[in-house]
Amino acid sequence: MLIGHQPKDFLLAVSGLTVSFDGFKAVNDLSFYVEENEIRVIIGPNGAGKTTVLDLICGKTKATSGSIQFRGKELTKMRENEIVQTGVGRKFQTPSVFEDLTVFENLEISFPRGRTVFGSLTFQRDQPVTDRVEEVAEMIFLKDKLNTYADELSHGQKQWLEIGMLLIQDPDLLMLDEPVAGMSVSERAKTAELLNRIIKNRSVLVIEHDMKFVEDIAHKVTVLHQGQILSEGTMEKVKNDPKVVEVYLGH
Amino acid sequence: MIITSRFFNRSELMGFIALAAVLFVILPLTLDVFRLNLVAKYLTYAFVALGLVLCWGYGGILSLGQGVFFGLGGYCMAMFLKLEASSVENTKIQSTPGIPDFMDWNQITSLPLFWQPFHSLAFTILAIILVPGLFALIIGTAMFKRRVGGTYFAIITQAVAAILTILIVGQQGYTGGINGMTDLRTLKGWDIRPDHAKIVLYFVEVVLLFACIGIAQFIRLTKLGRILVAMREQEDRVRFSGYSVANFKIFAFCMAAVFAAIGGATFALNVGFMSPSFVGIVPSIEMVIYTAVGGRMSIFGAIWGAILVNFAKTSLSESFPQLWLFGLGALFIAVVLAFPNGLSGLWADYVQPRIDRLFASRKAKPGWNDNSVADGAPAE
Asked: Where are the bilayer-spanning segments (chain A) (predicted)?
């Protein structure tokens, strides 16, 4: 385990991270490092603690011990909205969009301006906002649906909308929890294309079960099992690791 | 295509005109002063309902303790009026002249310190806004920063309402106890009891109500209004879009408190007394019922709810005093189960489409695209 001095170019440094729920260690002394512009995929069987890791990084769950450094800032001591403001974006497993608002309004809320109470009272829908919303809407294939209420979108479109809401935040680290789950084959291909476009100039942390999809996008793969790292490396290396085959890929 | 942000869309504008016509013209022309004063009493609850639309309908924060803020506003106003009514010459038969009568009855011989500033009308007006606002800020901060929400929050607000009632009743010498503050007479020397004063006070109240409607509508149309809706549905998504959810909840709760307090203050003025029976659990729940019946997602719906339910309460409780409370309970259950968006939801679903069709066929002008903007319409 790397402890102590880390090279400067890590965007995210997770070290010794542990969380226990009533004694059950969902994540146990976990350490891993994500570089700038790296696409890291986390795989592993159900209950391995994948989603919990994302929850810990974005502040949804508080760590029992360990540290998460993002650009040298300690995330475990920050509140969720502060973590977002330092540049970490999180997409949830089930599409969580605001169904009673239109696509435009959904994207506008994520625009990184006027995030205080007073700021949102005086927020103006000016040209930069409109331009950016339209630009992102085009990327997520929803340009002609700007005035549609989000509850009228299909499952795949909601997933895209949520990805769009993250894009508009322009995070340095984008965390996606099963972005293609429940999508049709054609939606899946479009999503892969979308992800390949948006991962430029940022690091991405993805949880995914779809191995074909993982192979397409991953720079490096981390395999989790019972809250600990089972294997880490390129897809090629991980695929041929006998431990991984036994607990996960073999099924 | 971007939605143009006008202050009112077409159906809201109709709602605004209808309410203004009824309150400013039709009721004052058709009702006698006694009935008009009853409407003034009903309208004090419309302020509370307006606050609940923002806080509960939009923000999803159910407060079962709005009576607390109604009461705080009302008591602030009543304290000023009571002090004016307790001048030395008015109270010279008391053992200590110049203090409110209930203090004298409770062997209090000098005006308590916290009553002193209520000699000033300017202070009183500030207190009507700030006392409930700060109290809501404290409760809101304590609850929402700790992520207490939903049912737990509702129960805690109930407890606060119960506590405040017990406090007011128990501290009879300082608050007037269970009888409240009665025999309020003048406002800066102007008698508030005769008929012409009641008419003036009615119009003052309606103007205040429309000012509050303006504020509520403004908030609704800003990004803050949309964040409230977003928060109600997907609190986590708002949090992970970089907003401090607690701060927005606190804001909505404080706004609702201030509106309720303005309602309470106009109650003291129009009805001429204030008592703990408007503070406790039952009145607080009734306030939620008005809002639910009128439509918690609609500013105008909630105001109509407050007027109509109170009107029904007055008429029915005269004829069936025992049955009325059961009727109110049944009404609430029926609204929640059958039409969650209340009267305004029914209006938007059944009446509005007919009116629109009538308009469309008469104008025969295809393509006006107001439907997508129509608000107050139920989401599902």
From this structure: none
